[in-house]
Amino acid sequence: MKFTAQQIAGILEGDVVGNPDAEVSNLSKIEEGFDGALTFLANPKYTPYIYTTKASITIVNKTFEPDSEIKTTLIKVDDAYLSFSKILEYYNSVKLNKVGVEQPSFISESSKFGDNFYAGAFSYIGDNVILGDNVKIFPNVYVGDNVKIGDNSIIFSGAKIYSETSIGKNCVIHSGAIIGADGFGFAPNEEGGYSKIPQIGNVIIEDFVDIGAVTTIDRATLGSTIIRAGVKLDNQIQIGHNVEIGKNTVIAAQTGIAGSAKVGENCQIGGQVGIAGHITIGNNVRIQAQSGIARNVKDHEMIQGSPALALSDYNKSYVHFKNLPKIVKNINDLEKKVNGNS
């Protein structure tokens, strides 16, 4: 699909400087621009590339004024980075705007779906499923019985949505994600083994949630595992049964959260963090990568380490951690001097 500079300026409410009929059908970095590509300039350190880029159209801030001749057509906007993000979103929505049911696929007669629905080949949609308007189910997706998915949500190829799961509006679930598998519930038995504890709850995902590839969210033993509105989960994250994650919290890859832990709102959790079960993380908490959390955390705390310490304490301690060999040598030297004088 091709767009002219004038059309793009209309979408972004920007001004064209150059050829309004310049056409683009691809996107690129400014340093890798080519004929027919749209790019942007937001970071001043990339300014030299605007004089050499081969991109047909470049989005720039309204304050930008070239020092010498440029060949690319400019679209001037209030915020070049935000505007390019808007174009990416628009481009993505056009690319993903598929409609209809591909074959072979299976859709239960008892399921219901809204307008502009798409189901890719080899997808399976079980009994009593309710899908909103503009829902996109890509190939090889499994949607179990009694699942609800809200308007404008996208389920990418290979994701598995177990029965009873509820997914809100404008959610994105990436390939390989598994939502609603059994929680890790076992009890020791008299024979010395473990007996399975039935997991009869579900998973609730509210609106505007993004779930990365190969992330797993377990169903509750009883009640619900809940992912609140606006949460963003990276790839390869494990969310245990009965966990609750507060709205607008973001979590990086390979983090694991054990059962019944509660994470507050607006938290930022780094990669490879481990959070023990049955603890509470407050609101606006910042947890650095590879930290191990085994205690309750108060609102606004910044912590790091395993077991985690307050970030300021960790940084002070680290000065000593890396000097331990020298410190030990000094102590040994002092002991020798003391013992030699006694």
From TrEMBL:
EC id: 2.3.1.191
Reaction equations catalysed: a UDP-3-O-[(3R)-3-hydroxyacyl]-alpha-D-glucosamine + a (3R)-hydroxyacyl-[ACP] = a UDP-2-N,3-O-bis[(3R)-3-hydroxyacyl]-alpha-D-glucosamine + holo-[ACP] + H(+)
Pfam family, one: Hexapep
Molecular function per GO: UDP-3-O-[(3R)-3-hydroxyacyl]-glucosamine N-acyltransferase activity
Gene3D superfamilies linked to this entry: Hexapeptide repeat proteins, MurE/MurF, N-terminal domain
Occurrences of domain UDP-3-O-[3-hydroxymyristoyl] glucosamine N-acyltransferase non-repeat region (ranges): 21-89
Assembly and interaction partners: Homotrimer.
Entry-linked PANTHER family: UDP-3-O-ACYLGLUCOSAMINE N-ACYLTRANSFERASE, UDP-3-O-ACYLGLUCOSAMINE N-ACYLTRANSFERASE 1, MITOCHONDRIAL-RELATED
Protein name, as recorded: UDP-3-O-acylglucosamine N-acyltransferase
